[in-house]
Specification:
Blueprint lengths: L8 E7 L3 E7 L4 E8 L3 H12 L4 E8 L14 E2 L10 E2 H8 L4 E5 H12 L8 E6 L3 E7 L2 E2 L32 H5 L1 H8 L12 H20 L4 E4 L6 H15 L8 H4 E3 L6 H15 L1
Parallel strand pairs: 1-4, 4-7, 8-11, 11-12
Antiparallel strand pairs: 1-2, 2-3, 5-6, 8-9, 9-10
Helix pairs in contact: 3-9, 6-7
Bound molecules: adenosine-5'-diphosphate and zinc ion.
C-alpha cells in the first residue's frame, strides 16, 4: 500500500450516470483525481478499487446518481434503486465499497454532496443552509439545512415537481414517469426536443430560453417558499448560459410578486462556486465529517 507522506487519506467518489470521479485528499487539497466512464457496476468499480487500493483510507464519501436507498432501517440502504442504467438498479453500491474498505463511509446523492461542497467551500460558504440545483441531462437538487444534508422518508426529488405550463409551450415533456414535470419540461433534452438543436448550439434570442427560465424560476420560488434556504446555487450544463441565469432571476422576482423577502436576487440565486467540482469536493468533505463523527 502506498501511503502518501505516511498519512491516511480521505476518499471521495462522485458517481454520475456518465462518469465517476474518484479523488483522495489529506483533509485539505485534492492530491489525486481520476475520471472513469460509468459502464457496468463490476467494470466501473474494478477501476475505482484500482485507484483507491493504493492508499490507506480513513474514510470515504460517496455522492451517487439516484434514486438511492438512504433509510438505514431498510434492506435497500446503500443501494442504487430504480434506474435505466444497465446493471445498476438494485445494486448494493455502499455494501460493495464497505466490503472492500472497512472504513466509515458517508452515503448520499450526487446533488446532496454538491450542495454540501458548495456550503463548506463554494458559493454558500459561511451559510447554514443552501440548495444546489443541477440542470443537465436531468434536473436534481440537494438540500443542506443547519449544515447537515436533509432527508426524510427518502432524499427529496426536487427535479420532479409540478410546474405551471408556459402558455406558449405545447411540448409534452421527456420524463418517463410524469412527462411534464420540471425535469420533463426544462432539462437539457427538452430543449433539443422542442427545437431540434442542442442547448449549447442554440442562439441566445431563441424563444425557448424564456420558457426554460419560466419553469426553473417557478421551481426556485417553490423551493424558497417551502425551505427558505440562505442561497440557491445553480449548476449543470444548461446553466452555462449566462443569459439564462439573468432570465431566471428576472422571472423569480416577477413571479414572487414581492410576497416573501429574500436576499438581493443576484446574491440569492447564483452560479456554482466550485465549477465541476462541487460534487467531488463535497464527497471528500463528507468522508471527513463521517470519520470525525
Ligand atoms: P450530465 O447532466 O449528464 O452530468 P451536463 O450537466 O453537461 O451533463 O448536461 C448535459 C445537458 O446539458 C445536455 O442536454 C446538453 O445539451 C446540455 N448542455 C450542455 N452544455 C450546454 C450549454 N453550454 N448550454 C446549454 N445547454 C447545454
Ligand atoms: Zn418527473
Amino acid at each position: 500500500i502506498w501511503i502518501r507522506g505516511g498519512k491516511r487519506m480521505y476518499g471521495g467518489i462522485e458517481a454520475g450516470g456518465t462518469k465517476f470521479v474518484c479523488a483522495v485528499s489529506d483533509g485539505g487539497e485534492i492530491l489525486e483525481k481520476l475520471s472513469i466512464p460509468t459502464t457496468t457496476p463490476e467494470e466501473t468499480l474494478d477501476q475505482v478499487f484500482e485507484f483507491f487500493d493504493r492508499y490507506e483510507l480513513k474514510g470515504i464519501g460517496i455522492g451517487s446518481f439516484g434514486p438511492i436507498g438512504i433509510d438505514k432501517t431498510k434492506d435497500n440502504y446503500g443501494y442504487v434503486l430504480a434506474t435505466p442504467k444497465k446493471g445498476w438498479a438494485q445494486f448494493d453500491f455502499l455494501g460493495t465499497i464497505k466490503e472492500r474498505y472497512n472504513i466509515p463511509a458517508a452515503w448520499t446523492t450526487d446533488v446532496n454532496a454538491a450542495a454540501y461542497g458548495e456550503l463548506k467551500q463554494g458559493a454558500a460558504q459561511g451559510k447554514n443552509s443552501c440548495i444546489y440545483l443541477t440542470v443537465g441531462t436531468g434536473i436534481g437538487a440537494g438540500v443542506v439545512i443547519n449544515e447537515e444534508i436533509f432527508s426524510g422518508i427518502a432524499h427529496p426529488e426536487m427535479g420532479h415537481i409540478w410546474v405551471k405550463r408556459h402558455p406558449d409551450d405545447h411540448y409534452e415533456g421527456t420524463c418517463p414517469y410524469h412527462k411534464d414535470c420540471l425535469e420533463g419540461l426544462a432539462a437539457g433534452p427538452s430543449i433539443e426536443a422542442r427545437t431540434g438543436i442542442k442547448g449549447q448550439d442554440l442562439p441566445q434570442d431563441h424563444p425557448v430560453w424564456a420558457i426554460q427560465a419560466y419553469y426553473i424560476a417557478q421551481a426556485l420560488i417553490n423551493y424558497t417558499l417551502t425551505l427558505a434556504p440562505e442561497k440557491i446555487i445553480l449548476g449543470g450544463g444548461v446553466m452555462n448560459q449566462d443569459h439564462l441565469l439573468q432570465k431566471i432571476r428576472q422571472q423569480f422576482v416577477e413571479l414572487m410578486g414581492g410576497y416573501m423577502e429574500t436576499p438581493q436576487v443576484s446574491e440569492y440565486i447564483v452560479r456554482w462556486g466550485l465549477p465541476n467540482e462541487s460534487g467531488i469536493i463535497g464527497s471528500l468533505l463528507l468522508a471527513e465529517h463521517e470519520h470525525q463523527k
